[in-house]
Amino acid sequence: xxxxxxxxxxxxxxxxxxxxxxxxxxxxxxxxxxxxxxxxxxxxxxxxxxxxxxxxxxxxxxxxxxxxxxxxxxxxxxxxxxxxxxxxxxxxxxxxxxxxxxxxxxxxxxxxxxxxxxxxxxxxxxxxxxxxxxxxxxxxxxxxxxxxxxxxxxxxxxxxxxxxxxxxxxxxxxxxxxxxxxxxxxxxxxxxxxxxxxxxxxxxxxxxxxxxxxxxxxxxxxxxxxxxxxxxxxxxxxxxxxxxxxxxxxxxxxxxxxx
Length: 259
Description:
Number of domains: 1
Distance between the termini: 25 Å
Strand content: 15-25%
Number of strands: 14
Helix content: 25-40%
CATH topology: CNF1/YfiH-like putative cysteine hydrolases
Structural class: alpha+beta
CATH architecture: 4-Layer Sandwich
Radius of gyration: 18 Å
Shape: globular
Largest sheet: 6 strands, mixed
Strand order of the largest sheet: 3-5-8-7-9-13
């Protein structure tokens, strides 16, 4: 689903209090190769253009997003850790909150943005899941921190949406990536890593399948999304793998304040 901002809304059925969308590369003012709605401050784009782009997105939100300093790790930013640290940006690759109108944001240009919400709509999460974070446990850590904020919450009462990321037909990886997921069952490995003919030790990896398998193993109740490919959709998405010098789009989620 899109509107004037060219936003993609998660394909999930959740509490009406939960608001979420993913931007595309369209609708901003940045010049090539960052055209046009680049939201990344560290991509090499003009600072004032990025700030203007962020202002465009901010007009659709109840508050300034919690922009993270993403490092392909597994640390989760929580309300308590943010309070202790003071001003951001917060070095983390995921965030959770139970505070209404606190907007979580993940910047993306091939890695997978994963949004989480409880069935009751009282706690949410957002994770930056490239292969390093995914194999290292960023999804598990995010779920753990959501449960810490909502005692009694069960994984079966959590819904997840996997946003635009590099797709299984374009994500060529080496043996090191396969080994990072070696603890997952042989069946899922053989489906998620397809050998590239003529290139020994090279595979086409399926991040969506790997994430879905982990989430199902954890008992997550509803998993949607996973139908995108940033690399093969240059009209809508930035892609570092495709372009190297490129912008970043964002996945955002918040709990709307009750009327």
